[in-house]
Amino acid sequence: MRIGIVGLGYVGLTLAIAAASRGAEIFGTELNPKIKACLQKDRANFFEPGLDELIAKHNRKNFHCVDTFNNPPIELFDAFIITVGTPLYPNSTQPNFEAISTAIESLRTVYDGKQLVIIRSTVSVGTTRKVVLPLLAKLSGKPAEELFVSMCPERTVEGKALRELTTLPQIISGNNSSALQMARRVFEKISPQIITANTLEEAELAKLYCNTYRDINFSVGNAFCLAAQKFGVDGANVIRLANEGYSRAKISLPGFVAGPCLEKDAYILTDNLPDCASKNFILSARKINESLEDFIVDWIKRHVDKSKAVVLSGMAFKGRPATSDLRGSSSVNIARKLHAAGYSLRLHDIVAPVEDLETLQLGAVVTDLSAACEDSAALLVLNNHERYEEFQLPALKNFVVFDAWHVCKKIFASDSIKVFTLGNFLLEEADTCAE
Question: What is the pLDDT of residues 161-175, one digit of tens each?
């Protein structure tokens, strides 16, 4: 099976390598010069366990990064998979699907309407049928009903993508029965279980529902945590208390809900949803999770002066599973807001490359976290990488630690070091109902 993949970012590259590992012949196109340069060196431009080893094994054998699908000339493809990103427009909650149109246009010289086109990107409900199919009809010169289009949503989590691609059920759909069977043949090479959606729209919604469901669940924990502090109670502790040994309570602990998917999928879901109670509920949950960043920034402004630097560690959007991905990171958003407020920042991450942090242009990038803290005013630990559990501070005076995820098990509060978490950082300012 010969498959063309448009976009070799996180979704496209992990899928390409997983398929190549199962014997498919994969050709991928990519516009980003950094991604292409890394692939020339047999590695990915991001951290994913086991990926670089598989790239080195399959690169230039049955996986090829090419400029176009017909240069050099390549025989007819069985399928094309669109995996390009669908970000929001800057300073907007409206999704930008321009990359999908560009990706489809890139097929012009090799697509004749006989191949299956799979949409793997996250899109608003109806996009595959109302936008993608007409574009392909125009490209091929054939009626839309004669084409083969499938929506097969990406479902993996960063840090576990290669394992999940070959173990998680894959959702497939099609605009007709032939497209459905073609999609089945593609994903049967990768996944042990195929789930069939009745329509393209069902498949689009399934992806959006999974991510938005997680967003809403996390928002409950964040809302409860903030509410508890109004009563003078540690919000994280009371959630642990409520959950312990009680199977009917699975309240999420407080934390940032970010990354390249969760930060936007609620907006993509509601993009063309008519005004209704469901839309208000979904967006309210998203706003609660976004508000956490501003609560912390405002708190820093009240408790940390600008006479010394502030160290921010954990710039990747999550620490478990570990990733180097800075996209959609609450840590980066917090850094931008503090930088705009005039704070001198030092940035650190356990996994993200130094050059990626330097690209942010938000402050000095440091590799020695202990040394960076020595003449600073505060340390903000903003993701939950397991290595923070062993981190210890040097002897410091008048120092503030904000350990968002309560992972720094060896940092203790003292007369000279004040330690705060998401569960208790607002307690000192609480106007408690008990009073």
Answer: 999 999 999 999 999
